[in-house]
Structure formats: structure tokens, C-alpha cells
Amino acid sequence: MRRALRSAWSVIVIIARRARRKIGETEWRESLARGLKGASAVGLIVMLAFTLARFRKWREERAIREQRTFIERVCSPGKANLNRATPVELQAIRGIGPVLAQEIVRYRERHGPFHRVEELLVLRGVGPRKLKALEAFLCVEPE
User: Which fold is adopted by the domain 80-139?
Assistant: First the structure.
């Protein structure tokens, strides 16, 4: 193993010496520096692409797929309909602040009506614990 490393290193040294002779000492260092900058930029772009792909996969796994389930035709009194409630009505529910109410309305405008209350898990700031607390005060009616 050491012999292989020594021989590989000696090959690198020989190539570097030849490059110095052909290009010149200062130009060789400048070209090496440019090459390293380019390689680090490519590495950074690859890492960014990998991170973005992992993030998208994570969001898709977290999202709830639309399923055909039984939807209540009428919300019982005291419950807010996710498909028709205004931000003010949503803020009246304990656990929903102005930011989350706006997120719910924005999601509804972009993606269409909610089919189940569990779709709130897609929103930032809503986890399983908060969803369990809010389920008693929310319902979904078809539009």
C-alpha cells in the first residue's frame, strides 16, 4: 500500500515538474489556483443540487396525498370551516395566530379547497400535536 502511494505521489510530482517547466512557475500556480476555485464551485453546486433534491423529497413525504374520504356535509356549530373561514375567524380559535391563519388562507388560495383537516400538516408551524389540538375546532365542507 505504501509503495503504491509513493509511486502515485512520485507520478504526481513528475507531472507537476513537467508542467512547471512548460508553463513557468508563477503561471502554474495561478492555473492551479483557478482550477481549484472552479472545482470548489462545481462541488458547491453539486452539494446544493443534492440538498434541494432531498428537501423536495422530504416535503413530498410530509405532504398528505389527496384521498377520497367521507366529508361531513355540514360543520357542527362551534367549528370553523377551513374552506370558507376568514383569517379573523381562524384567529378566534385557540392555537391559531395571525401568521398561521394567513398561511391557511394562502394555501387554500394556491392549492384549492381542503379535503381533510389533516392536510394542515403540510403547513409550516403545524405538527401532529398542534393538529390534534385543532381538530376539535375545525372541519371541512365541500364547496
Answer: DNA polymerase; domain 1 (1.10.150)
